Amino acid sequence: MRFIEPHAHMVSRTTDDYVALASAGCEAVCEPAFWAGFDRGSVEGFHDYFCQLTEHERKRAAKFGLPHFTWLCLNPKEAEDLRLAAEVLEIIPQFLDRPNVLGIGEIGLNKNSRNELKVLEMHVDLAARHEQLILVHTPHLEDKLKGTKLIIDALKSDRRIRPERVIIDHVEEHTIELALDAGFWAGMTLYPESKCTAARAVDMIECYGAERLWMNSACDWGVSVPLAVPRAALEMRRRGHGKAAVDQLLHGNPVKFLSQSPHFKLAAD
Amino acid sequence: MTRQQVLDFYFVEARSKLIDIAAFLDRAQRAEGADDFRLKAFQTAFRELGSRRPDRARRVLTSLSDRTSAPILAAGEKGACGAWQRATKPGTRRPKSTKKEKA
Known about the structure:
By secondary structure, chain A is α/β, with parallel strands linked by helices.
């Protein structure tokens, strides 16, 4: 089995996780910029984080034979401070040419506030001006449905944005159609408690098809499972999905979406 | 998969989750103090399970969701608690989420 882990916060994980991913057939890890569990206090803090994502973590992954890619942004959880957000967005372009940067993400909403929406629009504008792919975080639990609608409205209102270059992540049964019907890609996040189990993810594949879908573990500093994606493949196999279908979902689809970035290149055999 | 296969694969797991829910409701009932909106939201969502419609998961999720459309004025806390409270009465507070929501 081979797979791409398209959403993993590896700076929060141990080297054992890199070993486990590589041993299970992972061919690349992709790391969206994320909230640290506390608010960063200055633009300098973000600068250091972007250096970590584009320099240090790439080297750490390489020790295990894994190409490491990243997405850059200010996380929606830190979007209430508009002044800091503007400062952070100002420094992002200096990192966009670095060889492992795929685009702008994970942007989106958290509590669906006015300032979060403003910062989302600022990020969308940044992505459009620099022709970057977009990875969208949708809110948690009771906030997800409303947030997904607001995000899709914001994306559709910017005519520079092509839906096929945007993935709406963390979809569940009540939001997947919203993303797919609007022409976006959709990501299913496999978590032990919130978001989506492997069984539910495979339900959605069977109900909506796998054409513009991927699965990810979104492993980070909290309760999460770095091998959730290959374990979901076992769920597909026991339901009778063939090897080709599993390979398409776990490898073909992420490669198809991510290859829209000129920086996404896998090691040649 | 045939329905028989679905039952063979998933019945025991679903039975376990059903008993967990029953035990949770018992535990909440035994505990002292008032209900809050989460338990009411849970019971409302629970009614969707009795439906014959084939989209119960979507309907349960929607039932527990904020179905308003306007952005809120400002984000207070960062976490989510799993159920939406229509309006906060003066002098009452929304319970803090018990976990830090992330990714």
